[in-house]
């Protein structure tokens, strides 16, 4: 009887893993078909793919000579982005576009595999892997033509490593931060005490060593800071939604392509940009206050805190590009691997926002650029869902850590040993 009871869950788990694998293959084949169908045959010369075969490829030509594109106002990425954009050279038998898409699919598979493996451990669930496998295709073929899947991989692997090795947790977060800044936010939820000291120390060491190496190999590693300072308000941001609605009330602003995105120009745009920066500072202050006041940590708290942080910084950003949804899906998927998470309703809101985002871009992007009522409605719905998700995520995080639970429900505090390894906690 015991053998039967043991075999049944194992068989069921195997079936679920096979179903996830089949779903990944089917959906990624569809995404790849869409990418090529909306492009010149086998070249990717389409509207969505243009960022790879034109922009990324152009930067590749500069990077191979040991320099960052310092004088290109479109270059707004930290120095860690350089090796990612150079990575297609690892597949010399392909064009740059083909190699980039192949490596993106491989990274996507690594994320799905890591989430699936985490979901099979005690106290875990495969919902996270299901969210990633089924949620990413909602963005159609956009994820295959952006390097945000690679960025998200750093955050996902860092969070999944947090319960086993604070060294890997900190190092991966730092490396991700050097590629696109936001993955460093996953360290905000590190358990207080030795685990935090270990994770943050290893993040500082990994970041410093990597930055020193990149500075030695490439010239002008900090040129991106100059370009970031000049950015305005993108039409898909929360501030951009307000300005788009203002055009229907007589505001004379216009939409113009600058700094790599469609941004508003006109009176009061700079004021809105400063307001968004102020909201970002407020979000950071709230997260610091949460960390100071938090008393109760569960195995899912580092995941939940990461999702709340990324949501708050995304919503208050001057730019909310479609590919930002990849970040949110990845971190939400990590949350759902744990049965202790309080972010399940937030994950649903993110899925809804992702679906609407795909309608806005690329399907009806002309409506968004034209600030039509349809475009305004799409952005109001998408950004409204993201704002609601950010508030709900932070509130649920705060409540879940505000006070210690009764003694019989108390979870042992997570702490690392001398090697930086955090023992798994089961409740």
Automatic annotation (TrEMBL):
Keywords: Cell membrane, Membrane, Transferase, Transmembrane, Transmembrane helix. It holds the Pfam family GT87. It is found in: Cell membrane. It is a multi-pass membrane protein. InterPro entries: GT87 (IPR018584), UCP010361 (IPR016570). The chain crosses the membrane at residues 96-115, 127-147, 167-188, 200-224, 271-290, 302-320, 347-365. Belongs to the glycosyltransferase 87 family. This is DUF2029 domain-containing protein. The lineage of its organism: Bacteria, Bacillati, Actinomycetota, Actinomycetes, Kitasatosporales.
């Amino acid at each position: 009887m015991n053998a039967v009871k043991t075999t049944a869950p194992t068989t069921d788990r195997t079936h679920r893993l096979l179903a996830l694998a089949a779903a990944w293959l089917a959906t990624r084949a569809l995404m790849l078909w869409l990418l090529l169908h909306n492009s010149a045959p086998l070249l990717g010369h389409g509207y969505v793919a243009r960022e790879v075969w034109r922009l990324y490829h152009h930067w590749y030509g500069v990077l191979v000579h040991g320099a960052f594109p310092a004088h290109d106002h479109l270059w707004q990425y930290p120095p860690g982005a350089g090796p990612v954009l150079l990575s297609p050279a690892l597949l010399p038998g392909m064009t740059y576009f083909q190699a980039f898409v192949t490596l993106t699919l491989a990274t996507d598979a690594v994320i799905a595999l890591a989430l699936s493996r985490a979901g099979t451990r005690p106290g875990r669930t495969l919902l996270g892997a299901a969210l990633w496998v089924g949620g990413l295709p909602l963005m159609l073929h956009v994820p295959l033509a952006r390097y945000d899947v690679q960025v998200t991989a750093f955050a996902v692997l860092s969070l999944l490593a947090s319960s086993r090795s604070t060294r890997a947790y900190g190092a991966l977060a730092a490396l991700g931060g050097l590629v696109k800044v936001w993955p460093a936010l996953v360290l905000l939820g590190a358990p207080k005490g030795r685990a935090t000291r270990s994770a943050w120390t290893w993040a500082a060491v990994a970041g410093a060593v990597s930055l020193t190496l990149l500075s030695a190999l490439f010239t002008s590693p900090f040129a991106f800071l100059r370009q970031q300072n000049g950015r305005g308000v993108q039409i898909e941001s929360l501030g951009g939604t307000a300005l788009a609605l203002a055009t229907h009330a007589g505001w004379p602003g216009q939409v113009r392509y600058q700094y790599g995105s469609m941004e508003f120009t006109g009176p009061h745009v700079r004021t809105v940009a400063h307001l968004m920066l102020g909201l970002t500072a407020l979000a950071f202050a709230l997260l610091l206050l949460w960390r100071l006041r938090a008393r109760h940590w569960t195995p899912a708290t580092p995941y939940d805190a990461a999702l709340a942080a990324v949501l708050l910084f995304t919503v208050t950003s001057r730019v909310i590009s479609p590919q930002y949804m990849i970040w949110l899906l990845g971190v939400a998927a990590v949350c759902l691997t744990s049965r202790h998470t309080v972010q399940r309703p937030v994950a649903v809101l993110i899925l809804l926002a992702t679906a609407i985002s795909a309608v806005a871009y690329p399907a009806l992007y002309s409506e968004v650029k034209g600030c039509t009522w349809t475009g305004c409605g799409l952005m109001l719905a998408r950004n409204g869902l993201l704002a609601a998700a950010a508030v709900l995520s932070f509130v649920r995080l705060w409540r879940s850590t505000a006070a210690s639970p009764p003694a019989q429900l108390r979870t042992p505090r997570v702490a690392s040993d001398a090697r930086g390894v955090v023992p798994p906690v089961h409740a």
